[in-house]
From TrEMBL:
Keyword Nucleotide-binding in record: no
UniProt domain Cation efflux protein transmembrane: residue ranges: 10-202
UniProt-listed SUPFAM superfamilies: Cation efflux protein cytoplasmic domain-like, Cation efflux protein transmembrane domain-like
Name under which the protein is recorded: Ferrous-iron efflux pump FieF
Amino acid sequence: MDRAQTLALASTGLGLVVLGLKFGAWWLTGSLALYSDALESIVNVVAAATAFVALRVAAQPADQDHPYGHHKAEYFSAVIEGALIIVAAVMILKDAAAAALAPRPLDMPLTGIAVNGLATVINAVWAALLLRRGRAWRSPALVADGRHVMADVVTSLGVLAGLGLVAVTGWLLLDPIIAALVAVNILWSGWGMVRDSVNGLMDQAASPEMLVQIRSLISEHGAGALEAHDVRTRHAGQATFIDFHLVVPGEMTVAESHGICDRLETAIEGALPGAVVTIHVEPGEHAKQRGVPVV
């Protein structure tokens, strides 16, 4: 297993621990808000397991049926996770509506808050790690998992604050109201994950900052060429596909132009981990005078 797969597998195990703590808090109190928080943790575990499977598939090398690799498998993980979040939110809203009509007193609220608080601290630390590593390794599956866990942290903090108010004020209707607010927050988180995944599946271009870096690398390492134009990029999981047309003097030999292409590929792939570069060489008369000048 590579490092991303190991982290996804660890996320599944830790999610089970947090799930146990949150269901314990719900069992102690009977709080619908804590139940909704625990229900989201079930989605966390399933999503982490899905991310692990997606990362295993994405790591497979290119083959005859998938000559560009299996990188986009990670986006399916994020789509599935977003769909699970929406299902969980609908279930919570249904239960919250029923509980609002017949609110019930809470048992051992302070103990339940303490147990849920411990689970929230664990989640906060883990979410920060997933987001940092996922962005550094450019893994959509890990980033999606980290965002989901962080959303769980935010909702858990809201639940804890609300239950504190219930314990102090005795206003039982707050419990289903908090559960409904948790569901709305979960829906918003799920929508964000699905939106980002669709962008990836639709071959979203690299960020403007990365595009500037690519153009700079072409300009710095393309000595011997005249210009580069039609620079295009697309993300696919941890890979970034980059292609462009490189204009060289018409009298340049194939071997010389190939040497420039090798130099550019080495520079770009060295500066941008996961980059896959394709260069189309053209003679000087094809210069557009509006591409990337080579210095």
